[in-house]
Design goal:
alpha+beta, five-stranded mixed beta sheet, four-stranded mixed beta sheet
């Protein structure tokens, strides 16, 4: 059932329109500006140096991303329930300010709480309805923190402060509906995606997933705040991990060192499943064993003392930081899932790149850049630029028709992304 009529400045897109457009009831024939060209460079796997980084879920930057995205999803669901449409909002400006702690083996304490600032923009009134955006945001933030930082005392160890404002009139105006057309871009910006992952990229992500889903449930001493840095130097991959250990699960320095070695062994085991290259792993290289100065925490995150965090300063929407690849600097998390190009184009360009590699034989590497113009329909980028590094003996001209069809179809169904994001089916960091 459609919601009530929307005021001019608050309209995003009705729930019914999302479904109609995504299902193909568009009634529009478009010729999109898709440009495909050959990429003339050495494939990444044959370059001498490659760097890959991931900030895991408890890193202060990732915490800020996760909170921002959880708030956006919560607001979207509330808007749909109360108003029948997702209203204008962007919660991609959050900050985490570190507290102070006194960790010690067997269990320490947080002596000054972490401070989380929720800011950004949200629609607070609609057709006479007051929407409790601040309360929704705080509830979503605290729920995310509770689920992610299982050692955090939510009553004592963190302060969640909400300072959501309202959006500017011109940006809300681009949400006004046009019959049978998709939403209009809120910005002139671009999104970037690439595929396939290199061995080093695959390893860094696989190690992170293994720690989160397999190792930590067995060994809760391994905190959520982990940074993984991968270096491939020729045919040697070196993984450097900074891992916050949780003090209450560790009796002393000897046990701490045992857990470091356990983590190293598991990291090597996972990495070697994805490569035949030599792999080296180092854990908490700043530790000073002689003085007993080690990466020990009360809560499992460095945000408890000395390490701040910001939305958008960490992983890109593919879960990695990849300086050898083209990247957008946009914060994907927290942006509205309707027309914010900084979210939608980064997500869909990554998905389309992966789809092209999966369905079109002969692609060694592919890079997709989508550029919007503010106020224009999001399914009609100013350009969809595709760079292809073909496999040896393959001409790009032979690949182009299939690639263009995948990208054209993906853009035609771009609004499908919205509901997947709201349901949490698409990762943004």
């Amino acid at each position: 059932m459609e919601g009530p009529k929307l005021k001019r400045n608050d309209y995003v897109i009705s729930h019914r329109f999302i479904n109609d457009y995504a299902s193909g009831d568009r009634g529009i024939s478009l010729k999109r500006n898709i440009k495909i060209e050959a990429l003339h460079q050495i494939p990444l796997e044959r370059q001498e140096i490659e760097l890959v980084e991931r900030k895991c879920i408890g890193h202060p930057d990732s915490l800020a991303d996760g909170i921002a995205e959880s708030i956006s999803r919560a607001l979207s669901k509330a808007y749909l329930e109360e108003c029948g449409a997702i209203l204008h909002h962007n919660t991609d400006q959050g900050e985490i300010v570190a507290g102070e702690s006194q960790p010690k083996y067997g269990g320490g304490k947080v002596i000054r709480p972490i401070y989380m600032l929720i800011d950004g923009r949200a629609t607070k009134q609609f057709d006479g309805i007051n929407i409790p955006t601040d309360a929704i945001a705080v509830e979503a933030a605290r729920a995310y923190l509770r689920d992610t930082l299982t050692n955090l005392n939510m009553e004592r160890d963190i302060i969640v402060d909400c300072r959501l404002g309202t959006g500017s009139t011109d940006l809300r105006d681009v949400f006004k509906p046009c019959q049978n057309t998709p939403p209009r871009a809120n910005d002139t910006s671009f999104g970037v995606g690439h595929a396939p992952f290199s061995e080093t990229e695959t390893i860094v992500k696989a190690v992170s997933d293994y720690i989160d889903h397999t190792l930590r449930p067995r060994h809760p001493v391994v905190g959520q705040d982990i940074k993984i840095m991968g270096l491939r130097d020729g045919d040697t991959i070196t993984l450097t991990l900074g891992c916050a250990m949780v003090d209450r699960y560790c009796s002393g320095l000897p046990e701490y060192l045992e857990y470091k070695e356990l983590l190293r062994e598991h990291v090597l085991k996972v990495a070697r499943q994805h490569t035949g290259r030599k792999v080296v792993a180092a854990i908490n290289t700043a530790d000073d064993i002689d003085t007993g100065s080690v990466f020990l925490t009360v809560t499992g995150t460095s945000a408890e003392m000395g390490d701040d965090g910001s939305v958008g300063r960490g992983n890109r929407c593919n879960g990695l930081i990849t300086p050898n690849r083209p990247m957008s600097m946009e914060a994907t998390s927290g942006k509205n899932p309707i027309n914010h190009i900084g979210k939608i184009y980064n997500v869909i360009s990554t998905q389309l790149a992966q789809e092209c590699v999966a369905k079109v034989d002969g692609i060694e590497e592919i890079y997709i850049r989508l550029l919007s113009q503010i106020g224009k329909p999001i399914d009609q980028p100013l350009v969809a630029s595709v760079q292809v590094l073909p496999a040896q003996g393959v001409e790009v001209s032979a690949l182009s028709p299939d690639i263009e069809a995948i990208i054209d179809n993906g853009l035609a169904g771009i609004t499908c992304i919205t509901e997947k994001i709201i349901r949490g089916e698409i990762k943004t960091f």
